[in-house]
C-alpha cells in the first residue's frame, strides 16, 4: 500500500514528520533570500525605499523575474525534502511518491495532457463568450522568457507540493492514525488553508477555500486510489503551468506576461463550486475507468495494520498495480 510505506523504516515515528515539515519550511524560506537580495539591490541602486508589504514586493521587480525568484524557493524545498526523507527517515525517495518500482510517467503525461486540454478549451470558450473581459497581453519576448521560466520551474513547484502533501504528510499522518481517511482529510485541509494568504482569498472571500480544500481532497483521493502521486503530479503541473501561460490578472498569486489578461471582477460562486462538485468527480470517473480502480471504501477509509518486519516484502508487492 502506498500510504503505508512510511512504516517501512523501522525507526520512523510521527514526530519526525513534524520536525521534517519544519525543516522543509526553513529550506523554502532560505530559498527566498535570492529574491530579497535582488529587491535590496534594486532599492539601493535606484535609491528607493525597500518594499514594506507583500503586494509591493510582488510588483517591485519585472513580473518574470518575480516569478523566477518565487519558484526558486521550491527548488530549495524539494532538495530539503529529498535529504530529509533519505537521511532523517531513512527511506527511499521513490517510496514517498509511488508504490511502483519506478515512477510511471505515462500516468503523469495522461493526467497532464487531459487537464491541459480541458483548461485550454475552457479558457478559449470563456474568452469568446465574454471578450470584453479580456485584453490581449501577448508580448513575444516577454512571453518567451515566461515560457522558459514556467516550463523549467513550475513543475518543480507543483511537484514539491504533491510530494509534501500527497506523499510525505499523507504517510506521516497514516503513521499516526493507522487509517486512511484521517491522512486524506488532514492533508486536504492543511493544503487548502495554506492558500489563505493568496490575493484571491482577499478578493473573493473565504468561500474560495472550498475550491482549494476540494482540490486537495481530489488530489488525495487520486493518490490513494492509484497507489501513487503520478496522476496528481500531472494534474497539478498542468493546472499551474497552463494557467500561468494563458491568463493573468491583477488579483491572482501569479502575475505573468501571459497571452491574456482578465479584467473582470471576480466572484466566488458557480465558478468555484463547479470544479469541486462537477469537474473533479468526472475526472475521478475517467481515471477510475482507465486504471481500473476498485474497492474505494477500503482504499479511502480502511484501517492500516502496521507491518511486521517479515511482511514488508508482501506489502510492497500488494502495493504495485498490475500494468
UniProtKB/TrEMBL annotation:
<keyword id="KW-0812">Transmembrane</keyword>
<protein>
    <recommendedName>
        <fullName>CAAX prenyl protease 2/Lysostaphin resistance protein A-like domain-containing protein</fullName>
    </recommendedName>
</protein>
<feature type="transmembrane region" description="Helical">
    <location>
        <begin position="231"/>
        <end position="248"/>
    </location>
</feature>
<feature type="transmembrane region" description="Helical">
    <location>
        <begin position="181"/>
        <end position="198"/>
    </location>
</feature>
<keyword id="KW-0472">Membrane</keyword>
<feature type="domain" description="CAAX prenyl protease 2/Lysostaphin resistance protein A-like">
    <location>
        <begin position="145"/>
        <end position="242"/>
    </location>
</feature>
<dbReference type="InterPro" id="IPR052710">
    <property type="entry name" value="CAAX_protease"/>
</dbReference>
<dbReference type="InterPro" id="IPR003675">
    <property type="entry name" value="Rce1/LyrA-like_dom"/>
</dbReference>
<feature type="transmembrane region" description="Helical">
    <location>
        <begin position="141"/>
        <end position="160"/>
    </location>
</feature>
<feature type="transmembrane region" description="Helical">
    <location>
        <begin position="67"/>
        <end position="88"/>
    </location>
</feature>
<feature type="transmembrane region" description="Helical">
    <location>
        <begin position="204"/>
        <end position="224"/>
    </location>
</feature>
<dbReference type="GO" id="GO:0004175">
    <property type="term" value="F:endopeptidase activity"/>
</dbReference>
<dbReference type="GO" id="GO:0080120">
    <property type="term" value="P:CAAX-box protein maturation"/>
</dbReference>
<dbReference type="Pfam" id="PF02517">
    <property type="entry name" value="Rce1-like"/>
</dbReference>
<keyword id="KW-1133">Transmembrane helix</keyword>
<feature type="transmembrane region" description="Helical">
    <location>
        <begin position="17"/>
        <end position="41"/>
    </location>
</feature>
<feature type="transmembrane region" description="Helical">
    <location>
        <begin position="108"/>
        <end position="129"/>
    </location>
</feature>
<feature type="transmembrane region" description="Helical">
    <location>
        <begin position="268"/>
        <end position="287"/>
    </location>
</feature>
